[in-house]
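Ticket opened by: R.M.
Priority: normal
Category: complex prediction / small molecule

The reporter submitted a protein together with MU-OXO-diiron and asked that the result be attached to this ticket for the collaborator who will pick it up next week. Submitted input follows.
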Amino acid sequence: MKAKAVKMADGVYWVGVIHWHSRTFHGYGIPGTTYNAYLVFGEEKTVLIDNVYRGMFEQFDARVKDAFEQEGKDFKIDVFVQNHSEMDHSTFLRQTIAEYNPDAEIYASQNCINFLEAQYHNFGDLEINAVATGDELDIGGRTLKFISAPMLHWPDSMFTLLAEEGILFSNDAFGQHVAHSKRFDEDYDTNYLLREAQKYYANLVTLGSPMLRMKLDELTSTGLINDIKMIAPCHGQIWKNPAPIVEKYSEWGSGICKDKITVIFDTMHHSTEKLAYQIAEGIMSEGVEAVMYFMQEDGPDDVITDILDSKAIALGAPTMMNKPFPRIGNMMYWLDCVNFKGTGSEKSALIFSSKGWGGGAVAKLQRDLEEAGFTVTDTLDVLFVPDEDVLAEAFEKGAELARSIKE
Ligand code: FEO
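Result attached by the on-call engineer:
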């Protein structure tokens, strides 16, 4: 197989892979993705930063070889840096070491060393150097600075800064699941990339928000943030202009939200649907942004994306056998997993339901939402089909929720 490496700076190449037809990752829908790896040529040592996922070795290996050919150098990697051990970035690490230099130096966080062995059971014979914030490596005219970044995305995650060029190899942080032929942010619309980055953050990074805030504070207080000229994540486009994504990460990680309410519903005989539509009209009547999701058709991953920067949600499910309609249960598990409370945002919730007789959905959703960190401020539990009076009540409850979040 042939594949060209993409030059990012003198002696720095993207040697990752494009997984064009990947459609799910971590259970959420994606339009393809990339697993980015990077080759850095120092005067004395050549460094590979990160690796790729299963089924992708041939494309990766061809790109690595192309980078060596572009540099006119023999196929020899002196240093392997592994920023994170999750399989999408490490599947062929052992094989790459064996092919390109069994005696190479290897650097990773201590957690990463432990996790590699626990996943692959074949790293025990290798000497891997544990590094953390403050450790540096001279590769000949160039310096790698290691920066621990736990929970961005796993406890083992770290960043590696190529100091002279200011290129931050950030692994999962600042990534996006997109698959494009060009590698840089400047090749695509910034708002589109930020939306994809928001989906990625909401679904994969939200839980690590407290650690993100600490990391951004640390990078700011040490002045390192000013040294970062380019951010090269392990998924998606490389940020030649890091300012927009750093600003967004700061917002998302700090719970800064818009005057926006995400309405989520499922329905059996269209009664809960009618309530959802009226609640949305009430929200809009107050000039607040409303986003609507129907859980028969929409994925929880998109809902999570919009909840990230919403100040409130309105969640509706019909009652079935004294409980919420089951498809809403999948949504609830996602809400419980990502833990928006970690961002510092206080999200309020309106619960609505249509019931046949005794009800039960509202009480169950209230318990679940409160456990997931939401403050339930209002409920609407309707018997069978809403009449005009009930629809007017739903409208007013939407409007009241909107008024309650307006600044
Ligand atoms: Fe892209 Fe946590 O791996």
